[in-house]
Amino acid sequence: MAKYDFNIAVIGGGSAGLVTSYIGAALKAKTLLIEKNKMGGDCLNTGCVPSKALIRTASVISQIRRHKEFGIKDADCTFTFSEIMDRVQRVIKKIEPHDSVERYTSLGVTCLRGEAGLVSPHEINVDGKKYTARNIVIASGAKPFIPPIPGLEKVDFLHTDNLWELKELPEKLVVLGGGPIGCELGQCFARFGSQVTQVEMAPQILIREDDEVIRYVEDSLRKDGLNIAVSTRAVRIESESGRHQLIVESNGTERAIEFDRILIAVGRKARTEGFGLENIGVKLTDRGLIAVDAFNRTSVPNIYACGDAASLYQFTHTAAHGAWYCAVNSLFSPLKKFKTDWSIVPWCTYTDPEVARVGLNEKDANAAGIKYEVALYPLDDLDRAITDEEDKGVVKVLTVPGKDTILGVTICGHHAGNMLPGFVYAMKYGIGLNKILGSIHVYPSMGELNKYVAGVWKKAHAPEWALNLLQKFHEMRR
After folding, report:
1. 348-365 tens-digit pLDDT
2. Which DSSP letter does residue 159 get?
3. Contact (Cβ atoms closer than 8 angstroms) between residue 340 and residue 322
4. How far apart are CA 318 and CA 43, in angstroms?
5. Is the pTM of this model over 0.85?
């Protein structure tokens, strides 16, 4: 007779929980998945999917307004904001079956809708009924962090969880936060016609990126109409007779910014409360994440965690990556354990231009004291970027001094995220710039940029002594 009801029980039906459950079922383990809200979690319902649908519409609007650049004399760009938001919901509905209860049930996963509570390291209470599992995986995700700004509670503020219910375009929108979410959504609403003011405490937006990359993005945001206020701190909100002002401070001076709506985009906080972690001794980090070891195991040996609740990398693709390790380690430990590999982690900020990253940039390398060389190739030299009128940006590769070994890559440009994977593979499997340069690339394509930046590196490392000998050789043969 089985000791437990399930081999593995997963709390959370977002990206991390779905992948964990999928792998568990694929490996023929009896798998339980518990979700209290919507399957698909933040990514499907309030994050990646709706935001990219919104970004796509904003991009189309921007291109229509640029019609004269493409030789088009007239182009109409009228729209109703509520219909744009309706399209976002249609996109969600179209992708929804990928993450549905029906799909996962067909795969062999037992799916429960309800509130999970940890009773012991092997027991979970779901709406009054107890289930047991040999191992438990916490994939509870994250939620928007709401800063304690006086007066914020008196306004109907927006965040990434409730933004998608919006049906009326704000005339004046304040975006609090200059990170990826704030920049992406701020640009969208500016393109829709809102007067957008972006407020960021740090001296730069996208503070993790290198300076020249930030300049490309900032120039584009300002061109779209964003008023960007950096080194600016939100102090309080004042409301009177339906009018709202955000009082901000910069260089010791306060000023007021009027707004109709305010969007809070200052980061996300792991969901670690409300399901009994503290009851069984699961520890948290100083940053409020679930503490895990190199095998994604928590302080309780049979409980694992992955995704936004446990990782510094809060992306769907890193949630899925960590979920694989959670699944196999929970099912096969101690017979076999796999150390989670975070050595090569790509990501992309979907502004226009996009910023795609893998490995180190100059800020990272300088902070770590790592020596490097830089190969830089501007997109205004790339034929396909020129034909498409998308030639604003750059690709930047950091290498080991004197070698073609790649330390990191940043691409800033149109569809940068789609151009990054070649460099991810190269770093993962130790392929240097020489081999990239020696590969045939399709012409004309944006993907040629990796060959051309490799050519920049090669030219900088050309052996002058050998070239001098070749020159003399050819002179003798003339």
Report:
1. 999 999 999 999 999 999
2. -
3. yes
4. 12
5. yes
